[in-house]
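hey team, just a heads up i'm posting the complex here instead of the shared drive bc the drive is being weird again. everything in one block, sequence lines first with there labels, then the predicted structure for the whole assembly after. its two chains so it's a bit long, scroll down
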Amino acid sequence: MPMPDTDTSSPKYLRDKYAIVGVGETTYTRGSGVTTRALGTWAVRNAIEDAGLKASDVDGMLSYQSGDSTFSTFIAGDLGLRLNFYMDVFGGGSSTEALVGMAMGLIEAGMCRTVAIFRAMNGFSQVRIGGTGARAAAPIMGDALHGRTYGWQSAGQMFAPTFMRHMHDYGTKPEQVAHVKHFHSCHASNNPKAFYKKRYSVDEVLNSRIICKPLHLLDCCVETDNGTAIIVTSAERARNLRQHPVLIRGVVGRCSKPRTDMHYQTGPISTVAGHYAKDILWPNSGVGPEDIDLTGSYDAFTFTTMLQLEDYGFCKKGEGGDYVSNGTIKLGGKRPNNTSGGHLCEGYTHGVNMVVENVRQLRHDVDDYCPIGPDGKRQHTYDYREGGCRQVKNAELSANLGWANPGTGSAMVMRRG
Amino acid sequence: MAIQATYLDMPLAIDDLDVENLAYFKHCAAHDFRLQRCTKCNLLRYPPTTACPWCMNPKSDWVPVEAKGAVHSYTEVHHAIQPAFKAHTPYLVLLVDLDTQKGKPTKDEALRVMGNLTTPDGKLAPADMVRKVGIGTRMRMVFADAGPGIAIPHWTIDEAAQQPAKPWRYPQE
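-- predicted structure starts here --
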């Protein structure tokens, strides 16, 4: 699509001035058999190689974790990087896009030139992301006295009142939301890396056991072990690197509802942080939801995908159930979501893999089952049947919508350079 | 004074520095539901915090609040994460809008107080009671004693109140 004129000289907007030039990951698995330090080291190394950079080209590093991972100092040391800036922050699913925004600011401020962002986690074999094990047994203190004491601890339990209230307020049906898993599982069946490649029907989702209402087992994401990384640098530098540049149009980072962690005190609780974040994302990006070719709406649960697409304006408020079930979000539909299978199927990485996927989509080079041509490039067939293609035809603009909880989210628009 | 207690086999701890939670649970121990009221804007708040979320005033008084309201939303847990709850599934986690201060300071705000659905004596509700409660059900607070200086506030069906004909429940039982 033709892009609107962009004034990159304006200090207010950094549209298209920075790019994601490398992406890297380890195998999405249960039982990595290695430390988070090793996972992070492999992921960052793979991303640097993907970009065609050398260790000495990367001088910034950012990471996020929830007391379950390693730090930038170890990864940089292991790979022989000398850093001019690094920081490891606490957080989960609203971090990827927020840290990309921080990387842009760091480079803009002249503090470093090229930033590696990583998340490394043994979310199945060490600190389980679902909260079982050590986290469930820890003493209850502080704010948790008003939550964990009531058996209100896991992400699913904490988010469920928001999901239920959405069904109450708007008549959203379980079978509508179950389509998210159905479509994402179809996408995953064309992703050789996906942990779960099986296609699930809507009925299979609805017939899986209830975890906590309204969530069935198959409404919930998978717990996996993995390292994931992305490399951010200037668009100018990006033009001389190995991959087709993917430019960053705009970012909103960790935007919150009133009362943040106590967001349920304000309302409507069926509205999530995207309601506020959209007013930063779209003006910063200079585009609107109608311009977007594919989305990466965080699927910790089927409901999180729906709520965010709705509050960022991809459909009217309250019509998310229809939007996610009418075919729009499937490969071949108007605006596919999570073409890798996302957290529901590919693997759980607290958001990085959804950015990785959209970067590859905008390069027109997703790693599916299409044949490799004589020039070494994948020849996409756009046949989305099981075991086939998952490249979105002519993908130019993507939106990633990261989710921490109903009260906090981050988002980013990227475009093919 | 710091509090250490065991509730449903779960260790609870409030140290001396956590003065807001010490005060909140001390009142609960006397089965007396109190919240902080801002000395400047007079709004009540929950859960306990250091400053007023509407005017930043750090000063507050603990005042008695009528502990009645209606279920705003809930979840019904069938797969417990915490070992202590495994014997009690399905259990309800309730988000209850207090009648006091409902719709203030803005129309979508309320004092939304968490709790489990319990019997009138504060024990986690049996399955047949769980099936009766949904969005709109009228509730009253009860307390489960957890040790010296601490009791856990919970919700039970307010038998004296007029109940909605059919509270909203998740469509799939």
